[in-house]
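Example 3.2
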Amino acid sequence: MALEEAAAAAAGGRLYVMGGFDAAGNSLRNVWVFDGSAWSAGPHLPLGLDHTSAATVDDHVYVAGGHSFGRDSPRLFRLDGSSWTELSSMRHARGGHALLAAAGALFAIGGNTASANVAPAEVYDPQANTWTDLPSLPAPRNHVSGFVFGANVCVAGGRSPATTRVDCFNYQSSSWVRFPDLPRPTSGAGAATLADGSAVILGGEDAQETSINDQFARLLDPGGWIGSGAMLVPRHGFELAMYQGSAWACGGGSLPGLHPVATCTSVS
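Structure, written as tokens:
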């Protein structure tokens, strides 16, 4: 089905795309599972969610936050076989954020509620089932793109308006560092960390949020981003997930606003 503002993650040899908006703007409970050859329906989310985010720890998919038919959610779910288990809620409801797995923990950064951007970052300990606040994101914003780079959990871009800014929380020093700006401002893009440790960012919307950004850039080292051409099918409102050695972009919007597609493309 066509969808945008969905979450994506991989575990157990499968790629999962979860929630999002349909063409009518409904918050979706749908979960779609790709096994490398075909898509099938997975266990529905406990509630319809858009602008949620997903990550994988110990080969388990986690989904945190998002908006549900206009209401803000702090809830956290883990996929256990054929059902979802609800875990301890985030301390701060948010959607349009990044959920990043690093050092055996989950980091939630950025996002917004119906009233404001969410400044505090927070970290989840799966063993203790607890969230702890971290120092606030230096420039709070939503529709960020998240990736891990060494000991840094990072958010790139975001809005409003769309920005080139990249902020990274170093979980070893417990401090924020500013990484080099993106080549072009973007919001609602997808980002991921490749197997070699480099990061990529794809798509999104331009600074005015009036057109789709075809940006495709790589971060090979902290010295700066390198342009790598254009995104194959430019769109916004998707999460980039690593699966079978490639970063997959499934769904998203082909135009600003609500224009969901069913397209999947990948880079490696």
